[in-house]
Write a structure and sequence with these properties.
Elements (H helix, E strand, L loop, with lengths): L4 E5 L5 E5 L9 H52 L12 H4 L31 E4 L33 E5 L25 E3 L6 H10 L13 E2 L10 E3 L13 E2 L9 E6 L4 E5 L4 H6 L10
Parallel strand pairs: 3-6, 5-7
Antiparallel strand pairs: 1-2, 3-4, 4-9, 7-8, 9-10
Length: 300
């Protein structure tokens, strides 16, 4: 049967279609639910893609920043005759073309790092640290940080500038805060802070076991520095050894600040030649330790 329609004009000019039987046509609840489901599905597909795109942009920015810092450190070595003792130095500013106050340099903070500068600081926020080697005092295990050895030049990097790490990522913390911070007060992204242990391992292998299996409690963010070590794999929990009285332990393997980031799966490291590489959290520990030394003579 052919159904015919007629127009009804309502007050105000609105027009609706009504069948001759007087039944008004509308949208069913099923159709509404289908539309809502489709919209929800599209949001579920698009939202992760948008978040991924944003993180990719932040990660690219972070990679560019660490490259700039590595370049500035190389220029510092060329003009001052030594690598700087840390990334976070006033002497670095001329080579970064930055403001006069090192605590205001935004370049030092990775965009992905959610750490902030709230609290009592003597230095500003920093997401990058200079390679301090394996923590031992001898040159074979040393990193690029001059430490107490005096000047360190590019010619001292006998393993090769293209084989040796210079700067790595570290999650930013309230560096050098004058007081410790209770574990339950530490923000989630800051959980990879220093732990302490009352032990004195005799070797790198023993040290790694202690750091991975005998977590006691956080030492407090006051010990977190602007250096990192290659003793532990990327994104490990950093640690430091102490005595019964709480004093920092002594010996070649008394502390290790691990490289780390909030990027998915790993962290960036800039070599002494200025190149930037992304290392997985599961990088072979032999390779990771080898690139952390300047005169180790390792082959891999």
């Amino acid at each position: 049967m052919l159904r015919t329609f007629r127009q009804l004009r309502r007050p105000g000019g609105c027009v609706s279609l009504v069948t001759r039987s007087g039944v008004r046509r509308g949208v069913t609840m099923t159709e509404v639910l289908v539309v809502i489901g489709i919209i929800a599905l599209l949001i579920g597909i698009l939202l992760p893609a948008v978040q991924y795109a944003r993180e990719s942009a932040r990660m690219s920015d972070c990679r560019n920043r660490i490259r700039q810092i590595a370049t500035a450190m190389s220029l510092h070595e060329t003009q001052q005759g030594t690598y700087p003792r840390s990334v976070f130095r006033d002497s670095m500013l001329p080579f970064l073309e930055q403001v006069a106050d090192v605590k205001q340099v935004a370049l030092f903070a990775c965009p992905s790092d959610s750490g902030n500068a709230n609290g009592d600081f003597t230095v500003g926020r920093v997401s990058y640290a200079i390679n301090a080697g394996l923590g031992s005092g001898d040159m074979a295990h040393a990193g690029v940080a001059p430490s107490n050895r005096g000047r360190l030049r590019s010619r001292d990097v006998l393993d090769g500038l293209s084989n040796t790490a210079m700067v790595g990522e570290r999650l930013s913390f309230p560096s050098y805060a004058p007081q410790g911070v209770a574990w339950n007060e530490v923000p989630q992204d800051w959980k990879r802070t220093y732990q302490f242990y009352i032990r004195k391992p005799a070797s790198i292998a023993d040290f790694a076991v202690v750091c991975s299996q005998e977590i006691v409690r956080p030492l407090g963010t006051w010990y977190i520095t602007d250096k990192y070590h290659h003793l532990l794999p990327p994104n490990s929990v950093s640690c430091v050894l102490t005595t019964e009285s709480g004093a920092i332990g002594t010996g070649p393997y008394s502390s290790a600040g691990a490289a780390g980031s909030v990027h998915s799966g790993g962290t960036h490291v800039a070599y002494c030649d200025g190149s930037v590489h992304f290392f997985s959290s599961h990088t072979d520990i032999t390779v990771w330790r080898a690139i952390g030394t300047i005169q180790g003579g390792e082959t891999f």
